[in-house]
């Protein structure tokens, strides 16, 4: 990378980091249960005494792909399935996910699109399983439009729940020089227009190198570089995405969500087990409210960018800390072809809680749409 580009990038990211951070509520605040505002993302994992968890039986859900179906892949223990998230504060509670209400009211005649990588797919399939568990006879059709997979539910006025696979949100374009990651271009955004609910996510792919890196060059403005600081690239891409949201989203017609950074568990020192290098032998969550290893630095950058979006409310699904506490929830060797995976999540599992929180935020906002 030449010095001019380096200085430009450092200056841009420095400006981003000076933006005031989100409030503690972080997009998951709720006044349900009392006048005091609470944060649905601050809490602890507790054993579910009522028997409501897991929210579905993975063996009867037709939507789970093999890499997330840990029980089918041979995971013997089921204790990780019996925890529920309990927000802190006497006035803070989570309403149970009512799939009938969700489909008959929140989703009737509407479209929900998840946009992102395999962590978005994790959450998308979780949501479909929660719905199917309560409405097993609801018919649906499956269709594909390029990178988008669509499930349509005719009984609910053709409600659609979709996934658009886009791991960077910004564009990767094949050119004569090779595959170029363009940090200031979102041509793919044309596919997102018209959705009633958009849930975005990117982070998982930003630090990939070697054969799994899906680009050869990064373009910043007119400058083409072989590589750059990946967190800086992430920040510049998110700034482009934020500008797209401001320019293209009518908040009276579309609710926008951003799924926070989903963490991995490969370093036991972060949770008090030095020498442990994977999630492979983890069978229970951390039971306190705070992850000992702290939060990833990219999260502060993400929050700063979201806080600077003007004119369009973006509801932040601040899932990072609650997911960090779930070192037991990954596929481990019970995912795709037995390969160690401490990044994605078993289904049923942690993404179900992400969707319960999403549902609770929707309860207070879905009627705002025209």
TrEMBL record:
<feature type="signal peptide">
    <location>
        <begin position="1"/>
        <end position="25"/>
    </location>
</feature>
<feature type="domain" description="Trichome birefringence-like C-terminal">
    <location>
        <begin position="94"/>
        <end position="360"/>
    </location>
</feature>
<comment type="similarity">
    <text>Belongs to the PC-esterase family. TBL subfamily.</text>
</comment>
<dbReference type="Pfam" id="PF14416">
    <property type="entry name" value="PMR5N"/>
</dbReference>
<dbReference type="InterPro" id="IPR026057">
    <property type="entry name" value="TBL_C"/>
</dbReference>
<feature type="domain" description="Trichome birefringence-like N-terminal">
    <location>
        <begin position="36"/>
        <end position="88"/>
    </location>
</feature>
<keyword id="KW-0732">Signal</keyword>
<keyword id="KW-1133">Transmembrane helix</keyword>
<keyword id="KW-0812">Transmembrane</keyword>
<dbReference type="InterPro" id="IPR029962">
    <property type="entry name" value="TBL"/>
</dbReference>
<dbReference type="GO" id="GO:0005794">
    <property type="term" value="C:Golgi apparatus"/>
</dbReference>
<keyword id="KW-0735">Signal-anchor</keyword>
<dbReference type="Pfam" id="PF13839">
    <property type="entry name" value="PC-Esterase"/>
</dbReference>
<protein>
    <recommendedName>
        <fullName>Trichome birefringence-like N-terminal domain-containing protein</fullName>
    </recommendedName>
</protein>
<dbReference type="GO" id="GO:0016020">
    <property type="term" value="C:membrane"/>
</dbReference>
<dbReference type="GO" id="GO:0016413">
    <property type="term" value="F:O-acetyltransferase activity"/>
</dbReference>
<keyword id="KW-0472">Membrane</keyword>
<dbReference type="InterPro" id="IPR025846">
    <property type="entry name" value="TBL_N"/>
</dbReference>
